[in-house]
Amino acid sequence: GAVVSQHPSRVICKSGTSVKIECRSLDFQATTMFWYRQFPKQSLMLMATSNEGSKATYEQGVEKDKFLINHASLTLSTLTVTSAHPEDSSFYICSARDFQTSGELFFGEGSRLTVL
Amino acid sequence: RKEVEQDPGPFNVPEGATVAFNCTYSNSASQSFFWYRQDCRKEPKLLMSVYSSGNEDGRFTAQLNRASQYISLLIRDSKLSDSATYLCVVNTRDNFNKFYFGSGTKLNVKP
Question: How many CB atoms lie under 10 A from the CB of residue A30?
């Protein structure tokens, strides 16, 4: 089946630095990808919808200048957490829908960010 | 009001038990419904889609009641490996095909 790959799986950084997370659709083209954040024992919260070749659409309460999203190709979207702070520590997951086959929503493996 | 609501559990059941999870959604225009399984510190994975007529996949049965805006998942003959968090997911067709997630129901199957 379709695969979505996310990298890095774990990252630890100092407060104030920026961290980039990559999300790739490995065997299908994804014009739209979704970025979620999940805090411990909570559900996935949609942060933004990434659109290939255009600006991302952010959910209410998500700062677009802090969480920069770039979707430069049909198989790659990146999320950059800028000037990270400890409260940004979370599990970030991307997903993409394979419309070419089943339309199923596939998830990346997730990236666990720890900001010291 | 949340888009999707689930009982967080945990449900602690012995092996072999039958367990049922419920989920309600608030948007009557919701179009597609799914159950995902999420293991601790892992990404969610599709367990099964939920069809209007109800559907079964082995020990798992999913049902949808559009009138009540209610979805259920029944697991028969629980296995230890069924222990996970089960997420109810609803898709509302808008410009970007957003998916809304319930908070998940945790299942612990004990020997």
Answer: 27
Supply the pLDDT for residue B74.
97
* Closest CB from B42, B97, B101 relative to A44: B101
- Cβ-based neighbour number of residue A45 at 10 Å: 16
CB contact (8 A) between residue A108 and residue B43? yes
8 Å CB contact of A43 and B43: no
* Tens of pLDDT, residues B62-81: 999 999 999 999 999 999 99
CB spacing of A107 vs B104 below 8 angstroms: no
Residues 6+ apart with CB under 8 A from B67: none
Candidates B7, B25, B34, B43, partner chain A, best to mutate (most A CBs within 10 A): B43
Q: In this predicted structure, which of A27-31, B4-8, B22-26 has the lowest mean pLDDT?
A: A27-31
Which residues of B lie inside 8 Å of A (Cβ-Cβ)? 34, 41-46, 87, 89, 96-104
Distance, in angstroms, between B67 CA and closest chain A CA? 25
Q: Give dist(CA B50, CA B61) in Å, integer.
A: 9
Mean pLDDT of A47-59: 90
**Averaged pLDDT, B23-50:** 90
Q: What would the pLDDT profile of A82-116 be if each residue is shown by its tens digit?
A: 999 999 999 999 999 877 776 778 899 999 999 99
DSSP A86: G
Q: How is residue B87 written in tokens?
A: 């997420």
